Amino acid sequence: MLYSHLHFLLPLLSFSPIVASAPSLSPRVCGTVLSPSNFYQIYEEPQFINQTSGLGPFYPSGEFSFATLQEANNVNERDLIASFKNVPCPPQGRGPYELEFNFIPDSRYRASGNTRIDVFAINGDLPRFTYPDGSVSEIPTWATTNEQTGSLIGTFTLPTGAAAQSPAVIPINSFVCKPTINLRFSITNDSPAAGSVNYFSGPTAGLRIRYGC
Length: 213
Prior knowledge:
mainly beta; 1 helix; disordered N terminus
């Protein structure tokens, strides 16, 4: 298994929400792109509700595993947390700021069933754990992140079948810039179908923010 588990029980936190604007309907090829700083997996299953797994980076590629799933009838979900750090907001950078998924065909890509994904804002910083030596790590879990999950800011579908053989830039939404942007990705539960995706996201492919167009 690719993931290493960290087991902690964290206090519930509350923060102010990110503000999303109207979605961009067409992919762009201008500006600058920024990849996430980290990915985490959180678990709905009761025995794992206070656990998290880091989904990379895997070396030497520096890629992360963009992975989320749910079983049939919307149970045992495993959601993805993506964190963008040091986003260059004005005046260092300029808008518009857009979230997109740069899908490049990859033989390692795995998808089944429902591959439609909801994207939610996470309000504020991710929960943290302080170790005895004073070092601090982000440790989001299902239990703590539920309290911070805000509004739905977009929905997109990753390709399957023949469509997965062609590259595509999938626009998700535009938003107001903040220096740190934390997002939650979940297989949509508007149908009882099971679904899962696992895509290697890195500097040239996968989830990213585009700005400065």
